[in-house]
Amino acid sequence: MRAMTENPGPLATAAAHEATTTIVHLVRHGEVANPDGILYGRIPGFNLSEDGQMMAKAAADFMAGRDVTVLRSSPLDRAVQTAEPIAAQLGLPIEIDERLIEPWNHFEGLNVGVGDGSLRAPRHWIYLRNPFRPSWGEPYKEVAARVLAAAADAARAARGHEAVCVSHQLPIWVTRRSAEGRTLWHDPRRRQCALGSITSLTFTGDRLTSASYAEPSGSAGSRFAGA
Known about the structure:
Blueprint: H1 9-19, E1 21-28, H2 50-63, E2 68-73, H3 77-90, E3 95-96, H4 140-157, E4 162-167, H5 169-179, E5 198-204, E6 207-214
């Protein structure tokens, strides 16, 4: 007698769909050549330094053998250059997602070192009035919302596999804080998001369920602002 096979039905199918695990890796770009130490933000033409290229290669090595099916990047040069060795390692095209870009900032193009630079000029002080929003640039909640949306879209595109999104320090950090239910306001000196680091978000179905962190290049924080 031939064995009968049961149709799992819509409820069982939905449950299996919900249980599918997908990982989205948010990769911070490598070190940038920035001899004048300015906050380069969205200014074009800031490229990876030699050390930054090594960091990008370390991130690519970290991804070797992983089940990555989607690779997306911020449109900025330093992010795309970090994505390139990952693309070569995995044999994937780089898709540009504008939502992964660095936040806009009033101080872009200026030197903002503590105790010197533009922050000493009274004309800039009005932009420092509210660090919780913050008043000097794109609100943290808007940054987190767009990057979370980009990560969720990448997870859907790679469902059951893994995706890589190359972005920048602040977007990755506030996205992680949002995912962990923490306040978005923070001390920038205490961000756990080193150059070339990887913050991995695990999705169960469409739900973001956990986050983890790795530093393939063993890098420290950026020496300059705007990374």
